[in-house]
Specification:
This protein is mainly beta. Helices cover 12% and strands 46% of the residues. The chain has 3 helices and 12 strands. Strand 1 and strand 2 form a beta hairpin. The protein is globular.
């Protein structure tokens, strides 16, 4: 049957792409911290509040990307945000706007020492406010998102105060190296993300091609990968609130990334007085990341448990793992 042969070739081709990217991810990645814009994290509502939390303690570690949290808000009145004029708005697309406040912290392995750990990553922290847009083309089965981030890198991000406070509450060893952190600088970053559905089998399985690019004073990089989901799921490329209200599925997101600049390693663009940075020649220009997790969505709530693996980001670095959760409420 020619039709069955065509379908079989299509499935095998996309499975081969998925397998190839997975292999590349293991060896090679993406310095992605909190991500709220991927299609498998679509809330399916145009009015919601979501809290995101990540920590490497879920995997028994306390180094590299050690913690991140954010508060994300999407509502109809967000269309009045003047920063929305910075975003490209595709024609004939369903569009939502939102804002998110985010904090991230990074530490070396021996964070309890007061002296500089020259063969390890520097202490660093960021505190940012992000405006973002999500646009969905239901006919082309594609998704385009963009965001603009402004904030601070360094002491004003309160990385020391937050980590020391958490360690006191959990009766953990006190971090003493924050005096050597990346110095204060401004964060201005722009990100675009494009997804295209490659394969979908009813409401049970889907694969999307994903590409991202970031430009700015915090991160400058680009990535490609796949988003895969399996379970009871709606399409992230369909009209809001038009499908089943209960979703339960697992996902995997292998990514490969080319890194141009990372201020949490190399210091701020304008303030070059940090006591310790990672030299440009020691940065791994290609890294690999695998994100995975499980999502439960209902008519009024969103729950997610997540994990991530990241290959080493600099010459003397280590691989990293972290876990986390997301809790969202429809308003």
């Amino acid at each position: 049957n020619p039709f069955k042969q065509l379908v079989r070739m299509y499935v095998m081709r996309n499975f081969t792409i998925f397998l190839l990217l997975t292999i590349l991810t293991v060896f090679g990645g993406y310095t992605q911290k909190i991500d709220n814009l991927s299609s498998f994290r679509d809330v399916g509502n145009d009015n919601y509040l979501r809290f995101n939390y990540e920590n490497d303690l879920f995997y028994g570690q306390d180094m590299n990307y050690t913690q991140g949290f954010s508060f994300e808000f999407v509502a109809p009145f967000s269309t009045k945000n003047p920063l929305n004029h910075l975003f490209y708005k595709p024609k004939n697309a369903e569009i939502r706007f939102g804002i998110a406040a985010e904090h991230n912290s990074f530490t070396p392995n021996r964070y309890f020492l007061s002296e500089i750990q020259f063969k390890d990553r520097p202490f660093a922290a960021t505190l940012t406010l992000k405006s973002f847009m999500i646009s969905v083309d239901t006919l082309k089965q594609s998704r385009f998102t963009s965001s603009f981030t402004i904030g601070m890198l360094g002491e004003l991000a309160l990385g020391e105060e937050i980590q020391v406070g958490i360690h006191k509450i959990t009766n953990s060893e006190t971090p003493f190296g924050w005096a050597n952190q990346i110095k204060s600088d401004i964060v201005l970053n722009y990100e675009v993300d494009y997804e295209k559905q490659l394969l979908r089998f009813r409401n049970l399985f889907s694969i999307q091609f994903n590409s991202k690019a970031k430009f700015g004073t915090l991160y400058t990089n680009a990535s490609v990968g796949l988003n895969t989901s399996f379970g009871i799921l709606n399409s992230p490329f369909s009209k809001l609130n038009k499908e089943r209200k209960f979703n339960l599925y697992v996902y995997a997101q292998p990514l490969i990334n080319a890194i141009g600049y990372d201020a949490t390693f190399q210091g701020g663009v304008f303030n070059r007085n940090s006591p310790h940075i990672i030299s440009s020649k020691d940065i791994e220009r290609f890294t690999g990341q695998l994100n995975y997790g499980i999502v439960l969505k209902s008519k009024s709530a969103y729950f997610e448990f997540l994990g991530a693996f990241l290959t080493k980001e600099f010459k003397n670095g280590n691989t990293a793992q972290w876990g986390g959760f997301k809790i969202g409420l429809m308003l």
